[in-house]
Structures are given as structure tokens and as C-alpha cells.
UniProtKB/TrEMBL annotation:
One Pfam family per UniProt: HET
Domain Heterokaryon incompatibility: 123-273
Origin species: Lasiosphaeria hispida
Domain of life (superkingdom): Eukaryota
PANTHER family in the cross-refs: DOMAIN PROTEIN, PUTATIVE-RELATED, HETEROKARYON INCOMPATIBILITY DOMAIN-CONTAINING PROTEIN
Name the record gives this protein: HET-domain-containing protein
Length: 572
């Protein structure tokens, strides 16, 4: 059925009135009927009907739906179990914003010091894009003023909207990073940033300004493109003769929160906010959405459905299963946690950071969560207990090592590289080519630590082969002792190493063999390892990763690795 954009009216028959079509705004996606086991149950469907028909996400209709989602979430089994992973006394905010009561003047916002409040109030958090514009911030010089009153008219639109949503949800306090962390105090920033993930984990709910590119656009912003919106939003109509009238909605049965472009999810800091917050309300140009550990929901599908592949449900679900069995993880549970971490790292390293110095701290709360669950030790973003396989990370394409104000990470850690980082699947999970081609570890981690210059090092014992680099970019490595007979493929970590003019043909490098998949199938086994450059003192730096099929008739390393092939190498 096609209707003109200006159509507004009632659809009915002589027997009954069956629905209403009104020209307000559009949603997208087909609306199915709720299932008996749906996560949310609505005894009164007008709750979500009114939300669909509202002209703005700031309306009472949208607020009522959000409150109902929040109320029912407390009875979700998975969400209750996830709450047990959090330590309430750890990571509670030092400061909060008091937005006043629901009936109070909207401009009465003030900063409160939580230790002075006696009881610790429940609070919400805000997840947003700062954008390029200068915004009102908490500074050493205005703390006293903020405690008396925060000038509402000077706040960006996203903060104003977040204050309104907080009151609509029946709460009085919210945490907003730029208003609750002293922005010109390095010590306060270090203290608060280390517990930022816990601040989100301890909150009741996170308000997410999903499609706003800056804090000036607000939570209730409309979409810029006309074809993004549908002027029709209406109650579902069942006409005689089995005719069903529906309207395409922006969000259908699948909550596609990760489709591009979504400005908020391009921010690296936001990933741990999204994963660790117990639940989130997403305000976007297409409508209102919900996400918790149990499910996701939208205005179009308000009763919700399981979303096992969302970062929140996936990561916290694995933590719940692993944490609820015994004090010591089984090998299968440990592998599941490590797999979840690799997914998180790949997503995180694909996001943007304003300050690259935050590369490790912006994901530190997720790292701490895994440390608590597994008792593993983190070394510059790598797990010491799985360090040999962790060393075989690679970037999707050569990138850069950005300059940082302070030492960030050694060359063998992914943390110093800008770009999306992955792990070799065969190495990470011991699955080889997927049909039993299991890896054998040739190398051994002898020790780790920090040298006199404060640099992190790893000492490896591995099979080593000297190679010479070919001249063209991305060229092969050839065995320097066998007249170019053995050839291995490799990928540089950085653009500079890949194409730098200073790397003339004939530069001598070394290949360290760390892993070899056993030849248990028809497919050739695979050698994997690091490419390093040694200096005059014998220290080495990582510059890339090599691989070579054992089916190659010119193998770089022999079939049998003997003691004479092994060396101890220090990489910084």
C-alpha cells in the first residue's frame, strides 16, 4: 500500500475502527508480534504506541517507554548476574551532577562531592562525542562556582538533554566526564580515568547520544538527510480480508547499533563504556533504542530480543559463565575469555583517540575485569600467560607509531601502533587451518621487565635466521647465508618500515620463529614469527611479522629445529 507523504487520517470500516495513521516522523523496519518469552512484557501497548507516535524523543511518550524498559530490566536473569561482577564500593565517582527533581527548575544544576552526601545515590552516566567546539568544563578555578550552580545556558545541548532525560527517568544525579573530572589537573585526570570503566559499570544506565557528532547537537537531534526519515508513524492497522498495514522502520527486529556511520561508536573511550555499563539508552536521529546484557529493543520492537553478538552481551556473558563455575578457569573457559578479549581489542583498536597517550588507559577497565576473572597479568596490553602467542599480533595494514608525551609501550606491544590489531587465528585458538593443524611453539619467553631507561622488554629464546630485505616495498626476505635461496613473506608494522626510503636494499634483519603448525592434514604447515632489527648493543626492536608455508621448496627454517638454531634475543 502506497500513501502520499501528506496523508493524515483514520483507516476504518463500517464494523470497527482499526487504526490511525498520522503524519509525524518515521521509523524503519518491520514490526512483528511479541513472543511469549519476550524480554519485555507490556500489559498496556499504549506505552510503546505513544513512543512511536511522538514527534520528538524528548516527549513524555519516549520517556515512558524508557522508564518501562529500565523497570523491567531489573528482573532479567542475565542482568542480575552481571551486577554481581561489579564491586559497588570500587570505582564510585568522586563528583556527580545534581540535576534536581522532576518538577524543579531546569537550570538548577550543581556539582556535588559524593563523599559529603552520606549515602551514595544512584546515578546515570553520559556517553557522547565531544566534537571540536569548546565546551563548559570543570576546572580548578570554577569548582566552587559549580558547587553553587552550573550555568545551564552555557551548557552544550547534549548536556541539557541528558539532564532532562535523567529527571524523566526518575533520577537526580548524572556523571558527565567534562563536568566531573577536573580538566586542567593531571593528577585528578589520572585518578578518575583509571576508574572510568567502573564508573559506568556502577551506574544505573548510560545515556548515549549515538548520532550526535559533537556535544552541541544534543540527544534529540534530527537526522540531516531527508531520505533517512519517514513522515509516517502510526499504529499498526489490521484491515478486513487479512490486509495488514505496516510502515518501514529505521530499526527493525535486529538492533543494528554497529552499522556505519555512528559517530559515538568511532570513539575508543566509548567501547568500554558501552560494554561495562549495565544498560544503555540510545538516542539517535532514527529513534530510541535499548541495550542490556539480556536483550536489545527499539521503538519498533519494544518487547526486545536477545542480542548475543553485541559487545556487551558477548563480553559480559562470557564473564558471567566463566566467573560462575569455580575459582580456577577450565582451559575452555580461559580460551573463551581470551577470544572475547581479542574481539574487544580488534574493535577498540579500530576506533579513534584524540590523544594517543590514552591508548592503554582507555581500555584499562576492561583489562582489569579480565585480570580479576582470570588472575592473568597484563603487560602493555598483552597477557603474560599467553605472551608467546600474543606477540604474533598484526595490523590490518601498515600504520604509524604516533609520538607520545610519555613512554607508552615497547615495540613488541600492539599498544604503540595506530591501527586495527588482529591475532593469527591458528595461533590464538590452536585450531590451525580449522581441521586439526595445531601449532607447536618453537619459541620460549625467558623473562620480561623494564630496563634502566624505563622501557619494557621481553627476552625470548627462539630459532633465529638472518635475512636480507628485498628492495621493493613489501618485498620478501631472503636468507642471507644461502645466496637468496630461502624466501619468506612478511608485513611491516608501520608505513615507515614498509616504504621508507632509508631502508635500502640489502638491509640485514632477523626472523624469529615462534610457532609452527604441525602437518596433520593435506594443507602445508605454516611457520610464523617476528621480524626484528638489531642494534650495535645487541638489543632488538620489532618491525613486523613473517610467515612461510612449509610446503615451499625453499624453507627458511629446517624441518628439525636443533639447539644450534636457538638464540636468546632481547626485544625492547
Amino acid at each position: 500500500m502506497l500513501l502520499p507523504e501528506t496523508f493524515s487520517g483514520n483507516v476504518g470500516t463500517q464494523e470497527r475502527s482499526v487504526g490511525e495513521i498520522s503524519a509525524f516522523r518515521r521509523l524503519e523496519g518491520r514490526v512483528d508480534e511479541p513472543k511469549p518469552d519476550s524480554p519485555f512484557v507490556f500489559s498496556d501497548p499504549t506505552v510503546y504506541h505513544n513512543a512511536r507516535l511522538s514527534k520528538s524523543l524528548s516527549s513524555n511518550g519516549s520517556a515512558a517507554l524508557a522508564r518501562e524498559w529500565l523497570r523491567q530490566c531489573s528482573s532479567h536473569k542475565a542482568c542480575s548476574l552481571a551486577k554481581m561482577l561489579v564491586t559497588p564500593d570500587h570505582g564510585y565517582p568522586t563528583r556527580l551532577i545534581d540535576v534536581g527533581g522532576e518538577q524543579e527548575e531546569h537550570s538548577r544544576l550543581r556539582l556535588v562531592i559524593t563523599e559529603r552526601l552520606g549515602t551514595k545515590p544512584e546515578y546515570l552516566t553520559l556517553s557522547h562525542c565531544w566534537g571540536g567546539a569548546k565546551i563548559l568544563r570543570l576546572l580548578l578555578g570554577n569548582i566552587g562556582d559549580f558547587e553553587r550552580q552550573i550555568p545551564f545556558d552555557h551548557l552544550p545541548q547534549t548536556f541539557r538533554d541528558a539532564a532532562k532525560i535523567t529527571r524523566q527517568l526518575g533520577h537526580r544525579h548524572i556523571w558527565i566526564d567534562s563536568l566531573c573530572i577536573i580538566q586542567d589537573s593531571k593528577s585528578d585526570w589520572r585518578t578518575e580515568s583509571k576508574i572510568m570503566g567502573d564508573i559506568y559499570a556502577n551506574s544505573v544506565c548510560t545515556i548515549s547520544a549515538l548520532t550526535a557528532r559533537s556535544s552541541a547537537e544534543g540527544c534529540f537531534a534530527e537526522g540531516p538527510a531527508g531520505d533517512e526519515r519517514n513522515p509516517l508513524a502510526f499504529r499498526i492497522c489490521n484491515l478486513p480480508h487479512g490486509l495488514h498495514v505496516d510502515c518501514p522502520r529505521r530499526l527493525g527486529t535486529a538492533l543494528r547499533l554497529d552499522r556505519a556511520p555512528l559517530p559515538l561508536h568511532t570513539r575508543a573511550w566509548v567501547l568500554q563504556e558501552r560494554i561495562l555499563a549495565p544498560r544503555a539508552l540510545y538516542y539517535g536521529a532514527w529513534g530510541l533504542a535499548w541495550e542490556c546484557v539480556e536483550c536489545s529493543a527499539t521503538e519498533g520492537v519494544p518487547w526486545g530480543e536477545a542480542s548475543p553478538f553485541s559487545p556487551k552481551a558477548s563480553f559480559l556473558g562470557i564473564c558471567i559463565r566463566a566467573g560462575g563455575t569455580s575459582e580456577v578457569l577450565s582451559p575452555e573457559e580461559a580460551a573463551a575469555v581470551f577470544s572475547a578479549w581479542l574481539d574487544v581489542r580488534a574493535a577498540y583498536t579500530g576506533c579513534n583517540l584524540t590523544y594517543f597517550d590514552d591508548r592503554l588507559v582507555a581500555v584499562s577497565s576492561l583489562v582489569k575485569r579480565i585480570e580479576k576473572l582470570t588472575s592473568w597479568k597484563s603487560l602493555w596490553g598483552m597477557w603474560e600467560e599467553r605472551l608467546l602467542q600474543e606477540l604474533l599480533w598484526f595490523v590490518d595494514q601498515p600504520s604509524h607509531r604516533p609520538h607520545t608525551n610519555e613512554y607508552l609501550a615497547p615495540t613488541w606491544s600492539w599498544a604503540g601502533i595506530q591501527g586495527r590489531v588482529f591475532e593469527e587465528t591458528a595461533v590464538a585458538f590452536g585450531t590451525g587451518n580449522g581441521r586439526g593443524n595445531l601449532p607447536t611453539w618453537i619459541g620460549q619467553v625467558v623473562g620480561t621487565g623494564m630496563d634502566a631507561q624505563g622501557r619494557g622488554y621481553v627476552r625470548l629464546r627462539a630459532a633465529v635466521r638472518g635475512v636480507v630485505r628485498r628492495s621493493h616495498p613489501g618485498g620478501h626476505l631472503v636468507d642471507k647465508d644461502r645466496d637468496g635461496y630461502a624466501v619468506a613473506s612478511w608485513a611491516a608494522d608501520t608505513v615507515e618500515e614498509s616504504t621508507g626510503a632509508e631502508l635500502a636494499a640489502g638491509e640485514e634483519l632477523c626472523c624469529l620463529l615462534l610457532s609452527r603448525s604441525s602437518d596433520q592434514t593435506q594443507d602445508p604447515a605454516l611457520d610464523l614469527g617476528l621480524v626484528i632489527r638489531r642494534n650495535a648493543t645487541g638489543e632488538a626492536v620489532r618491525i613486523g611479522r613473517f610467515w612461510q608455508s612449509r610446503g615451499d621448496h625453499r624453507p627458511l627454517f629446517p624441518d628439525e629445529i636443533t639447539e644450534s638454531d636457538m638464540e636468546e634475543v632481547l626485544i625492547v
